[in-house]
Please model this.
Amino acid sequence: MDAVSQRWRGLRVPPLLVDGVLALAIMVITGITLGHRLHGQVALTLSGTVLITAGGVFMMLRRPFPLTSLALTSAVGITYTITQQAKSPIGLFMACSAYMVVMRTERRTRAVAIVSVMAVTVVAAAGYAGGELFANLMNGIVVLFGAAIGEATRYRRAYLRELEERALRAEQSRDEEAHRRVTEERLRIAHELHDVIAHHIALINVQSGVAAHVLRTQPAEAEHALALVRTGGRTVLQELTVLLGVLRRSGSPLPTAPTPSLQDLDALIKSFAAAGVQVKWDRPEALGALPDVIELTAYRVIQESLTNVLKHAPGATAQVTITRRPGSLSLSVVDTGRAATATVAHIGAGHGLVGMRERVAAVGGRLTTGPEPAGGFAVRAVLPLETGVMSDDQGVAGGRPDADPERVPGAGELGAGPAGRR
Model:
């Protein structure tokens, strides 16, 4: 049944054929009606037959020339009413033409056309036609009926077009929303990849440089550095395996491993200390319960800050401070600058500061970065314990002259330089 319906729905009949069948049907109905004897006389005459045939031909012009078709069929109908003095459905030709005028012309044009035809029909019926007045006015009534059907059809089609446009706009909105979510997910994955492996890669880079530097003079120190490189590489592979496994299992339940929090800072700081970064860190006693997103953001900011110290100021000492205040959590990572004995140069560039700004801005916090007056570099963040309460101030940052040139919404501009923090 559905296949038959689809086939009929997809079948397109030529409009000229439709109009031809319609004109022939009206001609047959008119001929049958007038073929009966009225008051002892045959109503269907030769001149009447000619007028009926002309009406059918003129009606078939209604699609390409709707106004012309209405004028000609109206002339035929009025002429028939005056000359034949007989009741007939010849006004149906006029009604079909009036329908197409309403469908194909603008509002003012169709109003003038229909009113003009009605006026001429009424005048002709009242002044020149004999017989009953109501019977003579039937052509005008039929024209008005055809125009009303056309107007109703016009409004219905406009309504259906509006529904289709709304559905199309809704579909486009869904596509745009899906594209936006895909973009956001890609950014989130990029952040996670950076946060997961950046500091391990930095450790590998630094320790491999140390091993190359002391390989001949201090074999034991070189061996220790290479062991750290091996451990860091193994950790990176494990974390990448977990992350890529999540991406592959799009339809499977996600793993429930805990996200990093401030409880994991001891292990993080020990890994940096093993790489040669001296970290001063006193665990605060009264942090209390914190939202998970705030703990994750604070952990990532400290991790990225210490990674920047390792990459850009090897041998420096970093001070990590975390303080809970009413309604917010403050943290800072301040280093003493590049040590005079450092021998490992930074290789490559990243988006560490940009990523930190985005993370802090996402929870409505405020991030400040920049050089210290006495030397070194500082990263300070204030995170609201209720996310979003600082959104008006988010990302107001001091820029280090030699930092990443990228601009982040709400953040200060960071100039480029030879040894900038990323």
About this structure: Residues 340-350, 388-419 have pLDDT under 50 and may be disordered.
